[in-house]
């Protein structure tokens, strides 16, 4: 089995070296593209060339579309195709590392477990990475939905006190200036930046809604655009009705998260219960045998 693992390891190394030489500086522009979670940018350049050569995007359009859509929601629509290529290259890079590591382990120890385990992980890990990306999108949507009622309450209070809608939103953003990592306030900062760059209020709100890609945010922006010109009590009343609905949805999301957290505790509790049974039951059984 050692010679098989040695051949596989040699082929993997030769493949990476050949494709690295062929890729050259083709993907040099992607090395500095901001994107969270990437750790194997340089290692992934041969994999990106492989993706282009094999036309994986056209062969698996549904998979690539889902990945691109998720990346658009997290990172924005700009450079979404490049980020999709980077993420796909990252997935294949992990597969290459696991396959090479498993082959090297078998070569050193002579046990076939290494190459088998490495091959299985090389197949499973890309699926796990894509699943984790989609999970991050769902978590981002939930975080936005949990924070949106608080934002809306603040806007209602400020508008009721005589502030304009734009000024009320700016005050809410300024109050969180030290902590703008939250996805909702991150997009609000981008929206206020568009105002300062010359975008109209309507266009900025529409862009904000597209970037968030959450139905409740779209409902919020539509309500604001339909009523903010009226001002006065009508506008405040419309926002209060929307706020009540959003608070109900926030309760539903919080309830769902609580149920998920409790379900995750079931397995550790079962394990602890089994350990307690073993600790308590073993002395009793030993005493009976005596």
Automatic annotation (TrEMBL):
<dbReference type="InterPro" id="IPR018076">
    <property type="entry name" value="T2SS_GspF_dom"/>
</dbReference>
<keyword id="KW-0472">Membrane</keyword>
<feature type="transmembrane region" description="Helical">
    <location>
        <begin position="114"/>
        <end position="133"/>
    </location>
</feature>
<protein>
    <submittedName>
        <fullName>Type II secretion system F family protein</fullName>
    </submittedName>
</protein>
<feature type="transmembrane region" description="Helical">
    <location>
        <begin position="85"/>
        <end position="108"/>
    </location>
</feature>
<keyword id="KW-1133">Transmembrane helix</keyword>
<dbReference type="Pfam" id="PF00482">
    <property type="entry name" value="T2SSF"/>
</dbReference>
<keyword id="KW-0812">Transmembrane</keyword>
<feature type="domain" description="Type II secretion system protein GspF">
    <location>
        <begin position="152"/>
        <end position="283"/>
    </location>
</feature>
<dbReference type="GO" id="GO:0005886">
    <property type="term" value="C:plasma membrane"/>
</dbReference>
<keyword id="KW-1003">Cell membrane</keyword>
<feature type="transmembrane region" description="Helical">
    <location>
        <begin position="265"/>
        <end position="288"/>
    </location>
</feature>
């Amino acid at each position: 089995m050692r010679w098989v693992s040695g051949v596989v390891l040699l082929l993997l190394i030769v493949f990476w070296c050949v494709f690295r030489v062929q890729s050259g500086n083709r993907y040099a522009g992607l090395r500095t593209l901001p994107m969270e979670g990437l750790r194997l940018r340089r290692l992934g350049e041969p994999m990106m060339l492989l993706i282009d050569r094999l036309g994986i995007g056209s062969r698996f359009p549904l998979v690539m579309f889902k990945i691109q859509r998720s990346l658009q929601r997290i990172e924005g629509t700009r450079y979404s195709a490049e980020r999709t290529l980077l993420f796909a290259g990252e997935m294949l890079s992990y597969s290459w590392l696991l396959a090479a590591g498993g082959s090297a382990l078998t070569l050193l120890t002579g046990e076939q477990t290494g190459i088998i385990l490495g091959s299985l992980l090389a197949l499973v890990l890309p699926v796990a990475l894509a699943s984790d990306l989609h999970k991050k999108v769902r978590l981002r949507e939930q975080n936005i939905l949990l924070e949106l009622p608080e934002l809306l309450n603040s806007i209602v209070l400020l508008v009721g006190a005589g502030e304009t809608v734009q000024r009320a939103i700016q005050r809410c953003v300024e109050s969180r200036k030290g902590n703008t990592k939250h996805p909702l306030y991150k997009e609000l900062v981008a929206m206020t930046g568009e105002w300062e760059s010359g975008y109209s209020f309507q266009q900025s709100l529409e862009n904000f809604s597209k970037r968030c890609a959450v139905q409740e945010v779209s409902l919020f922006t539509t309500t604001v655009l339909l009523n903010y010109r009226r001002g006065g009590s009508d506008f405040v009343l419309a926002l209060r009705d929307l706020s009540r609905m959003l608070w109900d949805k926030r309760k539903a999301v919080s309830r769902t998260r609580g149920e998920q957290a409790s379900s995750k505790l079931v397995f550790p509790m079962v394990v602890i219960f089994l350990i307690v049974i073993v600790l308590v039951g073993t002395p009793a059984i030993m005493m009976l045998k005596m």
